[in-house]
Amino acid sequence: MEQSYFIGIDNGGSSIKCVIFNQYGSIISSSSTRVPLSKPFDGYTERDSEDVWTANCHVIQAALQKADLNPSDVKAVSVCGYGGGLILLDQNGHPVIPCIVSTDSRANTLLKTFQENGIDDQIYEYTFQRLWSGQHAMLLAWYQRECGDSLTDAAYALSIKDFIRYRLTGVIGTEVTDASNTNLFNIHTQKFDPEIFQILGIEDLFSLLPERILSSFEIAGTISPKAAELTGLLPGTPVATGLYDVASCTLASGILDDSHLELIVGTWSISGYLTKDLASCQGRNNTLLSFLNDWYFSEESSPTSASNLDWFVESFYKKIFSDAENVYEACNLQVATLDPADNDLIFLPYLYGSNTSNFVKACFFNLSGYHTPAHMLMAIYEGILFSLVQHIRTLCGEQLPASARFSGGVSSSSIWCQMLADILGIPIETTDCKELGALGAAMCASIGCGLYKSPTEAVKNMYHAASVYTPDPQRTKLYAKKYAQYQKAVNCVNHFYSHEE
Predict the structure, then answer these.
(1) Res. 501 pLDDT band, cuts 50 70 90
(2) Whole-Å CA distances, 115 to 133, 357, 390, 467, 501
């Protein structure tokens, strides 16, 4: 088969990446950059919209230069990006607010009101999603009440992925996995629903949602002359619609049925699985349409993830391991020297949000003068994974699938992978590609341009398994006891904050 190349662009909560793949899923080149988050007020997390677009152009140019490819060698491009967040454009496509990132919590007070007055429950019947601060529904409701002037010129409300695809092609539209993640989308009729807008008190904003809801694999447009000039891509290169990043990682993990859990520990802690049974999703926190026809994706997620470790490393461990070439690898090696049976510290990873209550904070339990920074580090690792387990138990109860496929930044560490296998008591599988969001987008591009006829064919050619971590039964028993202690700590903290004056 003649060599074909595909570009996947991943706009994550932490960084922006462009990766060039061949048709077998091998990385040819990549480039990444970070656009610093702006936090002008408590709870705000946003980025300048033009800075985000400029960064996308930069990483595309850099990846093309590294690959030493002629732009005509690129058969198609696609995009993925964080779910939630918001970008508003005017009629001419110019941003009227910054890019709001999914970790934004400015709407927390309004969210609490909606939970107390039953609006959250009303909307759930339409969407099978619980309201959360950093999504379209809450952010639009917040803007309507607090910054109505910002909406005067707004014509379109988009996700980050759909914004970048618009800047590449000049075509406005959204896509099924992102549309169904807004909490404005009726999961039963599979359309944006004006009744939801009425319940939220934002009926005047219904027209902001794009009329075009595209499938994940169709060609949404082509690279415009202006975008070609800024990126180095060839004008007319096909651009496939793409996916919300969790859906993109699910596809790139080779998950096409309900036999595997999808687990991600990155900026967010995410667990999910595919199902054809919508009724079984009732009661779960978040249900979306899948990239597969007639399949749904049931998901539990929260920001109780690796950002907690980043805080500890930036605040303390960079000083402790100041001579280390890779501070995170040094952390892994230190945790590997400890016996979990000898560490009774418990950490609740709630620095940036919780998966039990909207307003609780992070903390350590059992801290004493005996404990060292290494004990605290191990407790952070365990706390992040115990929080993930809490999501999994909500999704699956005690009956877990036969195995789980694990991705996100920490999945490159054998220490994290083995700890997760031991905690869950099921095999943990990883892939040989560490850029799963971008790979999922590249798969969309390969299907959209017709190289592969289906997701099954794309997975067969572009997904490659790497390692399987088998649980240690003795460690699994130990972690079951530690998880019970973790749950006691969660209950204590929830009680403490529920009685705040």
Answers:
(1) very low
(2) 12, 11, 21, 43, 19
Residue 109 has pLDDT above 90, yes or no: yes
**Which is it for strands 74-81 and 5-11: parallel, antiparallel or unpaired?**
parallel
- Give the phi and the psi of residue 243 in degrees, each rounded to 5: -140, 155
Distances (CA, A) of 446 to 28, 59, 243: 15, 20, 14
173 near 220, Cβ under 8 Å?
yes
Contact 317, 377 (CB under 8 A): yes
For residue 197 the two structure tokens come to 């807008």
**pLDDT value of residue 148:** 87
Tell me which residue has tokens 């690792």: 381
Q: Residue 12's closest CA among 294, 354, 435?
A: 435
Give the number of other CB atoms < 10 A from CB of residue 340: 18
The answer for residues whose C-beta is within 8 angstroms of residue 57's C-beta and 6 or more apart is 227, 230, 231
236 CB-contact burial (10 Å; exposed 0-12 / middle 13-18 / buried 19+): exposed
> CA-CA-CA-CA torsion for 186, 44, 301, 410, nearest 10 degrees?
140
Split at pLDDT 50, 70, 90, the class of 498 is: confident
The 3-state secondary structure of 152-187 reads: CCCCEEECHHHHHHHHHHCCCCEEHHHHCCCCCEEC
Owner of token pair 């005067």: 152
- CA 369/CA 164 separation, integer angstroms: 51
Residues whose CB falls within 8 Å of the CB of residue 488, separated by 6 or more in sequence, listed in order: none
Reference 79, options 163, 158, 15, 136; nearest CA is 163
pTM: 0.90
